[in-house]
Design brief:
mainly alpha, elongated
Length: about 90
Amino acid sequence: MQLCIGGVYTWSLFNQPLVDAYGCERTEVFTAFSLIVFILALVTIYSGRLQDKIGPRKVATIGILFFSVGLIVASMARSLPVLYLGYIVLDGTI
């Protein structure tokens, strides 16, 4: 789980290549990191409560599934909104 969470902080390596690939502003790419950190913090409240109900193994498995699907979606993104969906929404729910 810590490996997945740590993967979020590698985002700075992708900033300039994403700006070049999508032809967008740097702030649009930087926004992805800000939003995923916010969502991660928000989701921990709910995942902690869910863990108390169904157990840590099930919550971890759900988190890994979301993270994996999010990386796949983000890797195939051809636009910034799809990248946001994969990286922020799906990866942020780990």
